[in-house]
TrEMBL record:
UniProt-recorded name of the protein: Phospholipid scramblase
Molecular function as annotated in GO: phospholipid scramblase activity
Pfam families: Scramblase
GO cellular component: plasma membrane
Similarity remark: Belongs to the phospholipid scramblase family.
Amino acid sequence: MSAPKAMTMDRVDETKQIIIAQSTSQCCRAGICQPSLNWVIQEADNFDGGNPHNQPSVAWIHEESSWFMRCCLPPCRETKYVQHTSPIPAAVKKEEDYNWCRIQCDKTPKGLTEEDRNKDVLVTHEKPLTCGMNCCCCLPRITTKDANGNVIGKTQFVCDGCCFVPKYDISDANGQKKYRLRPDTCCAGICIQCRCGGGKGKCCRVPYIIRDPTTYEALKGNAGQENAQVTQLWAGWKNECCTKRDVFHVVFPDNATAEEKLVLTGSAILMDVLQVEQQQDGGDS
């Protein structure tokens, strides 16, 4: 079987859906033992559990963030995620698989050389220092930039009257809203509507549907076969209980541009920072 093609801009334009899986093992993650949380991207519709390094990937993302903010206020931290079109370096793989109670004092992942840090960069996803999702000031956001530092879009957490339903606005480089990312709701829109069934790791999961920014109607993806969405998947027993690696399935809207798909990849990362990491660390920021 041939290796998957690197996810360059042309390949992003052709891609209908991806799996974005955390590759960093988080065993014994507590206090100051907080490693950078890196990701691999697979062109797939499901994650079969196990070590993501053992599954073919088309890109990887490394995090650059202060250890202090990662261990104290993870959803508030200033951080940058660098998305590469090249495979994850072997030295980083090794460090991630044997990451036990390590104190990471610098911003870059262990094992990452300066050459690999700047190699084959496609975009960066940059989050400034903000409040968490439970405050209605200095709201969390993540900005996606191309390799030259030009903004191509932004994901902004939304605070409104329905405070129990997390939601995000996705805009382009000019600030024009392109999508609203929100789960289905019940009780007149004030509560999240959970879904049971659906297969592919989605049983009792909450799909965040990608919607029209004005009407909030669900958009279709995967050639009209399902709703465009960002959904956290069941990552397998070992990942859920031991390594604590998170996994998301992103189905892009059928008419999305390559730039919009990259911005939506950043949206999945922001959701993880605000909603999953906050729960794992017991935070309420």
